[in-house]
Design goal:
Oligomer: homodimer
CATH architecture of chain A: Orthogonal Bundle
Strand order of the largest sheet of chain A: 1-3-2
CATH superfamily of chain A: Winged helix-like DNA-binding domain superfamily/Winged helix DNA-binding domain
Helix content of chain A: 55-70%
CATH class of chain A: Mainly Alpha
Shape of chain A: globular
Chain lengths: 109, 109
DNA sequence: CAATATACATTAGTAAATTAGGTATTAGGC
DNA sequence: GCCTAATACCTAATTTACTAATGTATATTG
């Protein structure tokens, strides 16, 4: 596995929740947004994205609503819940601390 | 899995190489040092530590030497190689970029 | 009308990590 | 002297997260 892929591991949940905190989005949109935002650092394959969305919904951190567009495309929009926001707060806090520690270690070298 | 454990994933290789860049160390020592350094953020179970050390050695990033202590304990010291330092440079660079991107995303929320 | 993009999803396989053991010696408390 | 904890190495079985490879269906563009 590439260094970049290895590094990205474990960040999926937080990045997903952060995006959905800004506004409800549908899967395909999220996938595009992830790629755009992080210059490829957060690119998420569909085989990971959809199962993760389903898991987060099952955990009560997201809800979903089907919507039809004017041109007959069906989209499943995901909305973050109160529990989701709570989880995001935790995640962001933990990431902050972790990154601080890692920075210390990198600098010490 | 706890948030902390999830976050830590993928950082093992870089943290290991960073420690060994400072000085040669043996497995048990590394394990202690990891726990001490990161307030638990970098705690590495033995089932991960030893296989990883062996893998890195196989990849030519580390070498190892057995040593006997005065009180008859055998220790296997690991030393980083030139290739290991190269890899570490890459890893640290990638982590820096990744953390920058992640910080942007967190701040944007 | 063919190729590409949009939009959902699943399955099979891989890699990294945890859990749970195992061996052997030394140090410290009772 | 004996028991527990610490030191020091290690492996095997399982779980989890991820990638790679597909599959279905419709819309858009050249």
């Amino acid at each position: 596995m590439s260094i970049r892929n290895q590094i990205r591991k474990g960040s999926t949940e937080m990045v997903l929740l952060t995006l959905l905190q800004q506004r409800p989005m549908y899967g395909y949109e999220i996938s595009q947004e992830m790629t755009r935002l992080g210059d490829g650092y957060f690119e998420m394959k569909e085989g990971l994205l959809y199962p993760t969305l389903h898991r987060l919904q099952k955990e009560g951190l997201l809800t979903s609503q089907w919507q039809e567009t004017e041109n007959d495309r069906r989209r499943k929009y995901y909305t973050i819940t109160a529990a989701g926001r709570e989880r995001l707060k935790e995640q962001a806090q933990e990431w902050q601390t972790f990154m601080g520690k890692l920075q210390e270690i990198i600098n010490s070298a």
